[in-house]
Amino acid sequence: MVTQYKCPNCGSDMAFDAESGKLSCPNCGRQDDIETFPEENILQEFDTEEAKEYHCENCGAVILTEANTTATHCSFCGAPVVLAERLSGEFAPAKVIPFTISKDEAVAAFKKWTRNGRLTPRGFMSGDRIKKMTGMYVPFWLYDIDGTAEVAAIGTRVRSYTRGDTIYTETDFYDVYRGIDLSYLKVPADASEKMDDELMDKLEPYDYSELKDFKMPYLAGYLAEKYDYDDEALFSRVESKIVPYIDSYIQSTIAGYSTVSYTNKQIQANKSKVYYTLFPVWMVYYDFENKEHTFAMNGQTGKVVGKPPISSGKVAAWFAGIAVSGFVVLKGISYAMGGVLW
Amino acid sequence: MVNRLNWKAPFLFLVLCLAVFAGSTAVFAADSHIYDNAGLLTESEIGELEALAEEHSEKHGADFLFLTTTTTNGQPVMTYMGDFFDEWADENNQENAVLLTIDMGSREVYLAGFGTAETKLDNNRVQQVLDRIMPYMGAGDYGGAFRETVLTASRYMEFRPGANPESIFHKLWFQLGVPLLIAAAVVGSMVMNAGGRITTTARTYVDGTNTRVRSQQDRFRNKTVSRRRVPKNNGGGGGFGGGGGMTGGGRSFSGGGRSF
Fold first, then answer.
1. ipTM over 0.90
2. Strand partners, A171
3. Residues A283-311: pLDDT tens digits?
4. Bridge partners of A173?
5. Is B221–A117 a contact, with Cβ atoms under 8 angstroms apart?
6. Residues of A numbered 25-54 whose beta carbons fall under 8 angstroms of chain B's beta carbons: which are they?
7. A337, B169: Cβ pair inside 8 Å?
8. Element (H or E) spanning A213, and its range?
């Protein structure tokens, strides 16, 4: 089943516009709210069989997709199409954060980011070799997590004082117990196999106040994927993500001791709710010195992540600059304190 | 031929004058710095230390003197030293000196600074020099003690009066090491963060209303007490005569002494 959004004015294919948050027509400029877009303008072609081949409604060309793709463009006429059946049933997303950064803004933000790279080679900094820029909705699982932690520890308080010519060191030992209720909301983990986990983690955080109930038109004009891993499979990854959070919370509840050694720590974390959610990501493919570098940009906040090339000359220059100026400053302090310069 | 010599003669005279003048500044620093009445040093040691004292005396315009004795004739070592210096100063027409006195009779050592050295080697610096030479005194290496005195006092006298020459800010390893560490840390974090930083924290996803301590207990269990004596930092016996004083001849000095 292929879905296209036809402009009620002129019949062109409409796409989601990140700046206004509406469906907009590239031809006549008409904009429609996603909530109120007239049903009759949603053009859907039902396949009679479970064919894995989709045809563009405009030109009839075969839409070539990977098995996970849920939204793409017709490779022949460029019309935005959404593959609805890959977004239904168990693959129906619950929530979506729409793009708020348009392609032009993304290009500008990326160029600005390359200029800020203090260690990147000069040629890289111009930011003018963007090979391809793809707006993509990446599937994430958001977990609401309930849990408990039971912690037993021995804490010490050390005090020392001098009486006469003897130094007394008093160490008080305490049995410390904490029973803790834990709750974390909407902890994300990316569910797409081809997205680098580390890269996706660095894109966080997203602003959840713009989390919307999922509607298909948000995808029009972008690429979208469906998940490769279900919520069960990814839960261990989320667990490993929140354990450090829990540890630091536990630590914050045991205050006022000189040392704390844990004798027993039991953490239980269960997912109470999961939301299948699509997050907006601009993928930037950048050519530099015959190598393609891939960067990802948070399509909501503009944060850029990815490994840029590092210029060893610049690293050396920074290191030498800081070390030498630090030496000069310390020499100056020494001189000001009555020392000699050489 | 004769003419030429005549022409050269005044020039030679001038060179001679210059040599005498240069010599006179050297003479201004005394020709003898070691007065080893107790016979603690060997001939070769005396020669070596004399040369060292000479070199540093010229550098500061103050003589580095070494006096040893087996007896002070019942006088305190400060008085004995003061009398010696009054005599020496009049003889050599030199008021600026650093004088290290060792009395083998009472096993005491006294370090004093006269004239310009009274401010350049003030009481605090005298104590710092003494700290450094006491290990030599304990080991019986009296020549080593004087060598250390000359080198350390000479180095201290480069610093402005009042400054603490042993401050960590004057150490080269500190001045080099700290900027290198800072540079490594800064550049290291720049490299690490070039690909984007993780900006989520433990508080990003926490549900503040439902994350709480349900029950808690901090129960006193037991207590241990350990005792140790206040450490004393006097490796080489007691100190005396700190703060300097005045010689019988009315010369004021900075100084300090220790027993060994």
1. no
2. A158, B224
3. 999 888 888 888 999 999 999 999 888 99
4. A156, B222
5. no
6. none
7. yes
8. strand A212-213
